[in-house]
């Protein structure tokens, strides 16, 4: 969920070959008490495959704090991927899902034509909160599918000396995630022991990026500090990775997403009219606290979020140009 209402145009900008392009985060307030580092979309890099939104938060000491507190809010046209490194988050949605997501477990919500959900640290909760929230844009023929929520507590793990790779989405080295995707995609949590050097297999038709969530691994010979993203371009069949101190990163990839998109608030669409319609519907349903396109989130105590005002300039999809 994002509270930043600025218009963001997501468009494929894959390179013709490998690069090493560092993306620095910007800090954004999420909900009542969580500050995140936003890596995608950024001024210079809008997408990696179908990944169009990446937030990294923590590690935060929330022992004396409420932790994550995000009231019910809507989504359309995307999948949310919740990935925890420390702590736990209670997911509720308008389908009736009520699931506590823990580290190493995949929370995968497909918004499709419309869904609402909330995210809260439980009470009581563990003292450290650390994780990533990512969005995947749904392709045109799939973006109005029926909403669903998947919780996968047992994900495939690839283990080599000094390396442990948990496959969130897609496939790596024969390990295939049970999470359902709608375009060729890869998401892997890679942990490297101190002093480890390995080589990861890659799909050359994918573009890839690495988000460091712990330590400072060397990715293709370049050190990538915590909370930063290294865009790697496409055309790679393998990726050398190494760690001095113990390190951890998310490897993201996918076939370059060629469709034109408009992303505004919590919606991914193809036109300004589509976004405006979704906003109006949410506002009307939230005001009367009644179900409909987005539905109600049972079990949440409190009011749903109100959508920000639409910008004065028209929301228009664009392609590769900035």
Automatic annotation (TrEMBL):
Residues of the Pirin C-terminal domain: 188-284
Region annotated Disordered, chain positions: 288-322
Pirin N-terminal domain span: 36-136
InterPro entries per the UniProt record, alphabetical: Pirin, Pirin_C_dom, Pirin_N_dom, RmlC-like_jellyroll, RmlC_Cupin_sf
Pfam families according to UniProt: Pirin (PF02678), Pirin_C (PF05726)
Family per similarity comment: Belongs to the pirin family.
Name of the protein: Pirin family protein
